[in-house]
Structure formats: structure tokens, C-alpha cells
Amino acid sequence: MPRFSEIWRNQPLFRLILEEVLNHTAGISEKDLLETLKKDHGIDVSRSEFYEELMKLELRGFIVVARVGRDLVIKVSPNITKLLS
């Protein structure tokens, strides 16, 4: 039987992603972000759930996702100060 912590998160995934992106002002690669979520927060998230959360954050104006070579790089949106004030 799975433990409660494996089923239910204490913080929403979008918030954990946003916090990690804010901690990496130069940007963070998709691979590094997924590794950080797994290592530091114990979250093994599917790619579809991860991309869905990235899309929500980008559409709301909190982050910018760009393709650099084969990787995705996630950066803080330049408009985030307006959104958070």
C-alpha cells in the first residue's frame, strides 16, 4: 500500500517549480529541474504532468520556456514583479 506522502503532496507542483526557477535566475534546464524535484523534494513527476504545470505557469506569465538546442530552459518572466505585487 502506498504511503500518504506518495499520493498527496504538501505543496502544489506549480509552486515547487516556481520556487526552483526563482532560485535559478539565469534559468534552469528541464533535466536539472526534474532532477531537483526528485532529489530535493522526493517528487517523481511524469513528463505530461510536468509539461502541464510549465504551460500553466507560462500562460499566467510567471515563467518563460525556451528551447536551447535539444533542451528546454525555464526562466523567470521579466513581468513577474508586476504579477506578484
Count of structural domains: 1
Poorly predicted segments: none
Q: Count the DSSP helices.
A: 5
Number of strands: 3
The CATH architecture would be Orthogonal Bundle
* Percentage of β-strand residues: 15-25%
- CATH homologous superfamily title: Winged helix-like DNA-binding domain superfamily/Winged helix DNA-binding domain
Order of helices and strands: HHEHHEEH
Output the strand order for the largest sheet.
1-3-2
From the N-terminal CA to the C-terminal CA, the straight-line distance is 44 Å
Q: In CATH, what is the class? A: Mainly Alpha
The percent range for helix content is 40-55%
Shape: globular
Looking at how many chains there are and whether they match, the oligomeric state comes to single chain
Main sheet overview: 3 strands, antiparallel
Structural class: alpha+beta
Average pLDDT number? 88
If you had to describe this structure to a student in words, what would you say it looks like?
The protein has 85 residues and is α+β, with helices and mostly antiparallel strands. Helix content is 53%, strand content 16%. The chain has five helices and three strands; from the N terminus they run ααβααββα. β2 (63-68) and β3 (71-76) form a beta hairpin. α2 packs across α3 (30-41).
Properties at a glance:
single chain; 85 residues; alpha+beta; Arc Repressor Mutant, subunit A; 5 helices; 16% strand; globular
